[in-house]
């Protein structure tokens, strides 16, 4: 059962939130962060992307960069750009994209639950990416950015969320760049705080939706602190990390598409004929074609779109991994035909999040940068939970969640 905890959030005053908040560290480059921060000294990029305070030739992983992040974090608190709440509480965070809203509960998630598998993952993590965030958490002694979790739908939590979101929010703004709306409420009523804690205690598992590296890093640093302090108590802040938990039925997963630089030893016509071994191939012409259902793909090559439908018997319907379109396309197209076996490292392939649309796939091929593009039907949240429950791991680059969580709305201090 899930152990969660309210916490004293460190937050910007209402009138400063739009100057402080920003996109998460891992969705943009150093140069993009430098540009977006501009001359705004209150931008949280100075804490989560502190390399922007150095010249572009300074290594973003240099010790002085992490030290600068901690120095800036202290400055934000000293200048009251971030102020700690006067009592532990939960928070509700609503994001609206294209007239669809998802409501998350911001909470302290248990390090022990992550280590014990109550908080379930569906992706592998890379040590170097974990170590980067661990260094950042250690030196700031805080979870500056939340992780993104999901929970099975729950009527009690849905009712509580509905109650709070009927009131005026603490924050309400439209984010630059993406244009999505973000709202934020304080759950500071003692009875409601107790309800949240007790309700999560009846939920058997939570699921990492997005941010596997951030989750692993936060849990490992919490474990380190618990060992150093010899303190595993359920009240100690270091035994929790900050998460936003959303009901699974509200989450939007977009397609995560592929572009490939060449066809290996194939010419276009030969490649299309080779696909017919495992797919029904139909030319759809020049008009953009989007996959309409699972096990259907859109291929763009030489100015035309093709519909690919998997032929019967090409995957195991009882295997939660083999049934995924990302698995099918990787095995039957990228590996078998093109020799692309390592999606993480092969330089011939790149990935395009669904928010950019299929026009971005067409643009990258028409420019000559890439030879072909493959659009996939999105993975469902139920598939993710089924895979996590089975203890299996999804193939790389399988999910793209939108909207992303904004950073700087609330921070969790570990001490």
Question: What does this protein look like?
Answer:
The chain has helices at residues 17-20, 30-37, 45-48, 63-78, 111-116, 127-140, 155-165, 190-200, 212-229, 268-275, 325-335, 358-366, 381-390, and strands at 4-5, 10-11, 83-84, 90-97, 100-110, 119-120, 142-143, 147-151, 171-174, 181-187, 206-210, 240-247, 253-254, 256-260, 279-285, 296-301, 304-310, 349-353, 372-375, 400-401, 412-413. The chain has 415 residues and is an alpha+beta fold. A hairpin with a 2-residue loop joins β16 (296-301) and β17. It starts with a strand and ends with a strand.
Condensed summary:
This protein has 415 residues and is α+β, with helices and mostly antiparallel strands.
Protein traits:
6-stranded antiparallel sheet, 13 helices, 31% helix
Describe the secondary-structure layout.
Blueprint lengths: L3 E2 L4 E2 L5 H4 L9 H8 L7 H4 L14 H16 L4 E2 L5 E8 L2 E11 H6 L2 E2 L6 H14 L1 E2 L3 E5 L3 H11 L5 E4 L6 E7 L2 H11 L5 E5 L1 H18 L10 E8 L5 E2 L1 E5 L7 H8 L3 E7 L10 E6 L2 E7 L14 H11 L13 E5 L4 H9 L5 E4 L5 H10 L9 E2 L10 E2 L2
Parallel strand pairs: 6-11, 8-12
Antiparallel strand pairs: 1-5, 2-3, 4-5, 4-10, 5-12, 7-21, 8-11, 9-10, 13-20, 14-18, 14-19, 15-17, 16-17, 16-19
Helix pairs in contact: 4-6, 6-9
